[in-house]
Amino acid sequence: MKLKVFIFLLALGFILTGCTTEEKVSKNNDELSGDKVVKFNIDRDDRLDNINNNYEKLYGEKISLNELVRPDDFFKQDEKFSKIQYEIDESDAGWKGSSGSVLYAEPGRIYFTTKEFSEIYDGLLWTNKGELRDDFDDLTKGEEVAGLSEEDAVGIIQNILSKYGITAKNLRAFPLSSNVLLKLSKEYMSDEEYEEYLKDSTNEPMKREFSEEDEAYLIIMNPCVGKNYLYNRAYDYGRYSYSGSLILAIVMRNKLAVFDADGAYEVRDNTERINKMLTLNEAEEKLNDKFCDMIVNGDIICRKEELTYIAVKGKEEQTYEFIPAYVFDIEYSLDDSKSDEKEGIKPISQTILLDAQSGNWIE
Asked: Could you say which DSSP state residue 200 is in?
């Protein structure tokens, strides 16, 4: 009889706590108290305290940039260029310049690149995961570009965007001085690796020594729909994958090294008022629930949270819907000591998206 009573009380204890054994371990393991598993290490001014339902679901199409693009806006005045014929999609537009520059345009995107971009900058801008680096603020602090001001460089890009009806926000401009370029180059490839790279004659040319002639401004912006900028990384929604929306350009002293405006849309008039959208508190609760049963080493930290828009395919062909989504940048560490590959603590950084209407997580 005593054994039956003991089992009953033990079961009752599990029911009343509302958490599994694994959840309880997670909360106690990392010195996390109460119901909050995720800690928000964010300045109060950066928090989204005034979220309300004054947001709209927007509809639109990609801008027909293949029909609007003008080569003279990109190639240098003294460079000759010729048209490229595309067999897969004849509506796409393209030109190739005498110096190796290439201009390509399709609905929603203009891409212009040069041999300077491939030889000097291309490999230096990305992480080993193929994502755009996010530490340019620290890397370029206090640096300058010889013979080119930030204002002039930004003005060149904004003039191009204005010509093609592309609106953008969240402007960031970074001076890629010769010092910064050398540091990035050595991070990308050690001296020993560079020597091996040069031995292979099939490899593309890559600069290692940089002068003032190579200095430039890296300009990054987010394309907008209405007054809201679009998410700039890849994501999956439903049956489709999306590359995100981003404007990236490098302006040298006497030419444009690269210009990539990807994810440019024009909005229709038939917007739809969003009657119900998750508040920030509700979104944070869902984030907390998502990590409730995760066992980590240390704290689960949210470094950044914001509200943005994502583009998803609409019901009509060639149309898109733009819906609000919460973005969370999360950091935590896992105990990797039992792994066959590596011993110790494995730090994890990830960005996750939450549909602000449905409350579903976006891959």
From this structure: -
Question: What would the mean pLDDT of 145-174 be, rounded to a whole number?
Answer: 96
What pLDDT score was predicted for residue 292? 85
Average pLDDT on 227-241 reads 88
Residues in the chain: 363
In contact, 284 and 307? CB cutoff 8 Å: no
Count CA atoms within 13 Å of residue 281 on its CB side.
3
Q: Phi/psi at 14 (nearest 5 deg)?
A: -65, -40
Mean pLDDT of 172-200: 92
Residue carrying structure tokens 């959208």: 277
Query: Is 220:172 a contact under the CB 8 Å cutoff?
Result: yes
- Which pair of structure tokens corresponds to residue 11? 């079961």
131 secondary structure, DSSP code: P
Q: What is the pLDDT of residue 294?
A: 81
Residues 6+ positions from 259 with CB-CB distance below 8 Å? 74, 110, 111, 112, 157, 160, 248, 249
Give the helix/strand (H/E) hosting 224. strand 216-225
| C-alpha separations of 43 from 49, 123, 146, 228 in Å | 12, 34, 35, 22
| Residue keyed to tokens 């620290």 | 138
46 DSSP assignment: G
Q: What are phi and psi of 283, to 5 degrees?
A: -65, -40
Q: What is the CA radius of gyration of the chain?
A: 25
Summary mean pLDDT of the chain: 83
Rounded Cα–Cα distance for residues 43 and 183 (Å): 31
Residue with tokens 């919460």: 326
C-beta separation of 265 from 62 below 8 A: yes
302-343 pLDDT per residue, tens: 988 888 899 999 888 889 999 889 999 998 888 766 555 555
CA atoms within 13 A on the CB side of 194: 14
Determine the 3-state secondary structure of 189 from DSSP.
coil
Judged by average pLDDT, the poorest of 222-226, 274-278, 352-356 is 274-278
CA proximity to 70, closest of 39, 44, 103: 103
Cα gap 332→347, rounded to integer Å: 6
